Amino acid sequence: MKNPISHIVGDVALIIILIAFGVFGVIKYIDYKFSLITKQTEISNTTLVATDRALDNKVKDLANIVSITLTEEQSKNNTFKDTLNGITDTVATLEKLSNTDPELLKKYSKVYFLNEHYVPLSLRTIDSEYLNLKASN
Description:
The protein is mostly helical. It has helices spanning 4-99, 102-107. The longest helix has 96 residues, at 4-99.
């Protein structure tokens, strides 16, 4: 017959060995999962960096396009403003000319002379107190 103490020691040793293998297996499993998560994180970080760079480039391109478009539109607006100011000046001049007495224009023209029948549009009679009747006698 075997010694009962050696039998118990053998069983305890076997249990300790089994627990050691179990702990070792759990540690290896955790290490494996950790390495997978690390690799996935690295891949995600690389993808995010590449996406970030691509988005930065697109933002820069869009900023350039907006800047160029804004400059072109400002140039068009300035051209339109200058044209509109020129038209406004011409209209103002034409309006002044249309409201001016044509006979008066002829009076100050180097080419035309007053007609003998010229009568200004805003002619009024002079009050008698301002008339010099002595000169007409």
